[in-house]
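ok so i was messing around last nite and threw this chain in just to see what happens. nothing serious, just curious
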Amino acid sequence: MKWLLRIFLVVWALALALLAIGTFGWFGQPRDPLSGVFLLPLGLPWNILADRLGWGGLPPALLAPAVNAGLLALLAGYRSRR
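result:
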């Protein structure tokens, strides 16, 4: 389980890096409004819930994967205790 958490955290970091590169046009890349699209599947279902509650926008999209990472960490801790 811990390797799954590590892979998830690396993918989340890569998605955040792609968001920053596409948003600010770093490394000569053109600015792209869809550069944050890779964060959406990582934060499901929490970003949909936040949108329905009226909390849509960038902060919930950035933090929704943290909920999934926290759940993975809890599961990894539970499995290691058993």
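not much to say yet. The radius of gyration is 15 Å.
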